[in-house]
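Supplementary Note 3. Input sequence used for the single-chain structure prediction.
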Amino acid sequence: MNKRIFVVDDEPKIGNLFSNVLERDGYEVEAFLNPVSMLDALDDGADDPDVVVADMMMPEMNGVELLETLQERELDVPVIIMTAHSSVQTAVEAMRQGAFHYIEKPVNLEEMRALLEKSIELYGAQQELEQIKTEQQQAFPIEGILGESDPIVRVRDTIETLCNASDTTVLFTGETGTGKNLAAKTLHYNSPRAKESFTDINCAALPDNLLEAELFGYEEGAFTDARDSKEGLIEVADQGTLFLDEIDSMSMALQAKLLSFLESRQFRRLGGVEDLSADVRILCATNSDLEESVKQDTFRKDLFYRINVVNVKLPPLRRMGDDVMLIAREMVAEFNQEFGKNVQGFTDAAQEKLYDHTWPGNVRELRNVLERAMIFTDGELIGDEDMTLAPPGRLDGVRISDDAFQFPPGRTLKEVEKAYIRQTLEARADDSYADIAEDLGISKKTLWDKRKRYNLDEVVER
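The predicted structure, written as discrete structure tokens, is reproduced below.
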């Protein structure tokens, strides 16, 4: 489709000249004698232009006023201002207000052609970027944090509140796989900073010296391989959001430098002497107990208080009740689309298996289990035999030693009983059921029933 050019000039010969020349170049050109007639044409349903070329000095409305009107109408198109030599300064001011460029009269047609090509190219790239950002915003609605249990409802409500507090530092806490990254992206893409970049880094993925260079950047010659200067992620994320995952992995020295930036919003690149500033929102995440890390002197107390302005706690999947099935069904729908299948749901046995599992890897583990099941299942329902679950044990948070059974607080009695029976069966594989049941204080039949109820057949075959 040919690009549309609107030419606005109170001299008819200018409009005629541009129409004749640019139409031969393949453009679709419409000329107007004043800005008001152009605006009226848009009101009457004319297609939006790709570029507006407008004279600076016109009766009724000048070029700058036309630019302001287009901005008020949110018509985001490049505007090229034509000006006589005596009003160049005014045209430069128009560029400060958003005009793409200016060109002096009498107009050099080759210069005009170059400006049109450049404006269309840059505007097209800008539109593509805006489209990507819009798609990202649509991909992370607050409702995308699935679940109806009280803990998840509180998470969504908190994120919705924080969206308008776009400068506030937020700490996301929760076990691995609970969706801290998703929550951080949702907060960013529903905030006033959504049009700017979301930049993330896993602090545990890099050695400390490389992490410092990635965050704060460096100047040429700052270290052996620093052949050129480089912006750090704090600069890259200016006006946007920087997400620091696994912040507990950061060294004490780097923690001090981060704290300094959070308090002053200024920093220096490695090897630099100039103070730089950045307007960036900092979001942090950890699956560790930072308060305990503070007590152990592995995390700075002052930094903890600085990043813990608002703590969003992501609940483990085992605490979300019926949400496990709600999330599972949503994942099945996604995988149906991805794999071209038509799986309708789960058998009763599969649902019971999903409910009984303690999900040490949380939502991430659930997604992996269902992805594998969807790949290999041929029926309309996923059966319990289609799902391969990691056996409980160390991944479940149960720490087993030779002479003790240890279980983390916060689990249900059912989970404790299941884990204890499992450990006992594993540790006493050569003993009889009668002896094990007697030591557990239950009958042999009760032990057999609990083994079936907790799906422990795969642990030990007798």
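The chain is about 45% helix and 15% strand. The domain at 140-313 is CATH 3.40.50.300 (Rossmann fold).
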